Amino acid sequence: MAATHSMQTQLFINGQYVDSKSGETWKVTNPATDELITDKVQTAGEADIDAAVDAAAKAFKDASWRGIKAADRAKMMLKFADLIEAKAGEIARFETIAMGAPLSVQTFVAHSAADVFRYYAGWADKIAGEQYPDDDGTYKIVRYEPLGVCAGIGAWNASLILFAWKVAPALAAGNTFIFKTSEKSPLGVLSLGSLIKEAGFPPGVVNLVTGDGKTGQLLAQHMKIQKISFTGSGATGRKVADAANKSNMKRCTLELGGKSPAIVFEDADIENALNYCSQGFLLLSGQVCAAASRTYVQKSIADKFIAQLKERFDAAGQGMGADTLAPTTMLGPLADKIQFDRVMSYIESGKKEASLVTGGKRIGEKGQFIAPTIFKDPSENAKIYKEEIFGPVGIVKTFETEEEAIRLANDTTYGLSATLYTQSVTRALRVSAALESGTVSVNSSHSPSVQTPFGGVKQSGIGRECGKQGLMNYLEPKTIHINMKVG
Ligand code: TXE
User: Fold this and answer.
1) Of 41, 183, 337, 387, which residue is most buried, by most CB within 10 angstroms?
2) 303-340: per-residue pLDDT in tens?
3) What angle do CA 256, 262, 267 make, to 5 degrees?
């Protein structure tokens, strides 16, 4: 089928594709083949960000957006969702050639992004206020109002869903938006500009920009942006939060990294646990914030489980290196050479801090492929045990008792996700309550649902995305008191 959805490398500002005013561009390389995709991706500088903010501020107040019914906003969101769905494969392809995740996975992500817009379209005309009786002489009302110009900064691992998690609730609440993709995977989201227009969103309601950290900082520190939502590393999240506070105290939501535990109890369905602790963990080659990169196995089943886990990891590695655009390919490379080198440096230090069970090397001569890797029993202060690696590198350790498993799982500065495998519902509830984590999944890896809040405790972030909480992040409550003793 001829591609009817063209690749875009320009910024999408005020309803138009435009070059950056500085003319600065950068290149995107396919990490599976090391081939240059394009060297014309525009880098948004200060003048471009100012233009995007002006367009969003104007659109926010314009009758064509602020003055329409919420149900009409919802119609645009539903149309946009249908347009994404109709072109999901082509949009996904732009992601695959830029950051390497197989087309099959990125197509699923594109469909999920469409569903996120449908879910939040449903909220648009259901943002209820509150009213409290005037039994004390004061009639009390709480209204929930949009913030105005909001901005989002995405990471590269699942750009389309990160875009949807930030933009959809903001639009449902009546805001306008500027979204910056990661410089590693700009093409899928940039291609959405034509669909934004076709869906009927007025110019300036949704703006798409690209660029690296400098562009991100321009958004985080901009005095006319009321809210910033960030997904990425903890180190960068701190810079974003600092810039947000030091500029105009804009609202700030942070979805950061994780070092999530998977606890396999001896009464678990072992086949199920093996599936999720291998394919589940290896999705996107381990480049998922909620990936369970620390597997704790109860001693009584450990030897057999770890041997079988090794077999699963080795089998998964057999498919690596295949054409990432082929529908059967499930595992791809790291997002780029920077990530490849970063993960390989962790592997080299891991070889000194733990015992290598399998993997620990590159696959093939081209592309940024790393073999699925397992390290066993790292020392408790080992780099590979404490830090987010963000690649196909898992850690396994054993435990004896439930209390020990909980202590080990919670011994981290992160708290994004946790998974446990057991057939006892009472143990599942007891351990879920004890784990320090924003999300807990029982008998499966964590896959976020648009209906439930996603985000971390401790240093995995601030705030939530998805669900009603994801919507409320884009609204401000306004309290109105009326003195009923007068008039
Ligand atoms: O992330 P960065 P990177 C973690 C993971 C990964 C590490 C590095 O450990 O190995 O981060 O990945 C923009 N002000 N996660 O370098 O630097 C940048 O342009 C404002 C986990 O990609 O955090 C990009 O759009 N913005 C994460 C975005 O921030 C700045 C997924 C993320 O870049 C900026 C991705 C600045 N000073 C990485 N500097 C998850 N939670 O899923 C950079 N950016």
Assistant:
1) 41
2) 999 999 999 999 999 989 999 999 999 999 999 999 99
3) 160
